[in-house]
Design goal:
Number of domains: 1
Largest sheet: 7 strands, mixed
CATH architecture: 4-Layer Sandwich
Distance between the termini: 6 Å
Strand order of the largest sheet: 6-5-4-3-2-1-14
Number of strands: 14
CATH superfamily: Ribonuclease Z/Hydroxyacylglutathione hydrolase-like
Helix content: 10-25%
Oligomer: single chain
Structural class: alpha/beta
Length: 214
């Protein structure tokens, strides 16, 4: 079943299938309205506000949220009904809009030893699309990832490590994400290095642009 991935700013991606749609990480740097339009499920990797707009998502009463418990507690504190909130952990497998989503368990990368690291997961959609959140989550053995959504700008990130992550996952395509803190020049440098130093096709997407998978 083909998937359509639409980038909605920073780390947010909407996934449309033949049976519906869901979004991953609709945070405060993203087009959250577009991420929630017509969806009934949202997946969140961790509690940082650039990955989850807590107030908006808590008020989206028709949307179920799958996320680590720390995220769900923040949403409940903001008024979300508990029956909408579903905890996930590494090893879980979800059926979301007809897509199989595997939950992977990589820790949030370290910003500084004095900065707490939140509960964190990554998501693998139909064994084809990997959203690592704020981590260098590996692909499970034997997985042939088509699209890796690779962070390129963050307080925890070094571009050399991003290159090594792409090499390790070995996807066919890379869509750079997590770039709201970068200038246009910085974003261009990241794209150029990924293209020069990895074997993947680098596909930069502006907000609202899409690619098809499968």
């Amino acid at each position: 079943m083909p998937l359509t991935l639409t980038r909605l700013g920073h780390s947010c991606v909407r996934v449309d299938t033949a049976r519906g749609a869901f979004s991953i990480d609709p945070g405060t740097f993203s087009d959250v309205a577009a991420a929630l339009e017509g969806v009934t499920v949202v997946l969140v990797t961790h509690v940082h506000p650039d990955h989850v707009d807590v107030d908006v998502l808590a008020a989206a009463d028709g949307v179920d949220v799958h996320a680590p418990a720390q995220v769900l507690d923040a949403l409940a504190d903001a008024g979300a009904r508990r029956e909408r909130l579903h905890p996930v952990a590494a090893g879980d497998v979800l059926d979301v809009a007809g897509a199989q989503v595997r939950v992977l368990g990589e820790r949030h990368e370290m910003v500084h030893e004095d900065v707490p690291r939140p509960e964190h997961v990554a998501y693998l959609v139909d064994d084809l699309v990997l959203h690592p959140g704020d981590s260098y989550a590996p692909a499970p053995p034997g997985t042939r990832v088509d699209v890796l959504l690779e962070p390129v700008g963050a307080p925890w990130l070094r571009l050399g490590d991003a290159v090594d992550h792409v090499r390790a996952v070995a996807p066919a395509r890379v869509v750079p994400i997590h770039d709201a803190l970068l200038s246009d020049a910085g974003r261009a440098v990241a794209v150029r290095l990924l293209a020069q130093l990895t074997a993947a096709q680098v596909v930069p997407l502006s907000t609202g642009e899409s690619v098809t998978v499968g």
